[in-house]
Amino acid sequence: MGAEELHGSxxxxxxxxxxxxxxxxxxxxxxxxxxxxxxxxxxxxxxxxIDVKGELTAFAEGVLMDAYNQASDGKVHAIxxxxxxxxYMNSSGIGxxxxxxxxxxxxxxRLLTYGLSEHYRNIFQITRLDDAIxxxxxxxxAVRAGAA
Amino acid sequence: xxxxTPQSEGRGEERQPSREPRDAAFWAQRVExxxxxxxPAGAANVNVQGRREVGALQGFGQLWQKTYRVHLAGVExxxxxxxxxxxxxxxxxQPPNSRFYPSMAGVAPGEVLFISASVGGMPVYTGVxxxxxxxxxxxxxxxxxxxxxxxxxxxxxxxxxxxxxxxxQSLARANDPVYEIGFRIMGATEQERIWTHVLKSxxxxxxxxxxxxxxxxxxxxKLQWSQIKNLWHNAGARSMLxxxxxxxxxxxxxMRRRGT
Lengths: 148, 260
Known about the structure:
CATH superfamily of chain B: START domain
Number of strands of chain A: 5
Number of domains of chain A: 2
Distance between the termini of chain A: 81 Å
Order of helices and strands of chain A: HEEHEHEHEH
Number of strands of chain B: 9
Radius of gyration of chain A: 23 Å
Structural class of chain B: alpha+beta
Number of helices of chain A: 5
Helix content of chain A: 40-55%
Oligomer: heterodimer
Radius of gyration of chain B: 20 Å
């Protein structure tokens, strides 16, 4: 094989490879990213509530940790996650909650939740998050428990 | 094989146009304890039947998040295709000292995968249950007695360059003090070798020979002494007993046959 022929083959191969990358890049642009919104409310001196709306997946990490930093400002004793607006959660979302729980415990705070549908309560039981995260039916109950 | 999965329940016409979340079909149903009705050929139902599942909060040792990645560079494969192949050929990608035996249903929510591993020459029979599986990922959770307490998520995604990346992320801690010591002395390296082998094998299936990267973060350095009771279920010790009792029975049978 001559040098020119080899150069041509390599050029064609490179073109093919770039084509694959281009297709994949287009696919990536179609992919959904973080689809979650978290609002922080300070209910009283002891408790902050994070309203989770949307999807809890790996993409939500930054949003969740930012919300926690905002919520734990001051001398808050408990962080309450409001899951009434939770639309989707995968196993990476569960991993995020574990990481958050460890951070909360490190700050000597408590992590509580309310607004979980039956489906998500089941997931908390499957993954045994319910052993460590208090689950309540309403905001009132969760806030009362957090302030206790 | 074990419990009915949401997927197999049939999302029939009779069902109301439900308010069921989009992820409902991907999660396993809750079970109090693992129930195994059918054991795949070659697998040992030891340390699986009747065990409770344990997550990253229930174990004894330090909590580690380890992320292994390989870029499937130069091939046209979507994350969905990569994960489909991964599910189908999961046992083939394991190293010889860590054999997985899936049920007939394969890697699907609620299914149990039996494990026959060898650690330092000693057998360890245990298993994991698939708690989550969608088109781009699946997650297994460990039972009591397993060396680790937590989850492993196997997934694929497209990176900024448009290359598909296969990833294993484990969030787990050693289940009891013996495992914790073992992991600190040599076990962690062995575990890392296993997942590196799995990613290398997956990449090789697509004709890719790229390096596997690993990042590890100690999420919680504390030991959970309240979980020291987990020692009772230690699958390593129980597997050794199981093997010794089996060998004893075999010897007795042999001597009886020779005596008659």
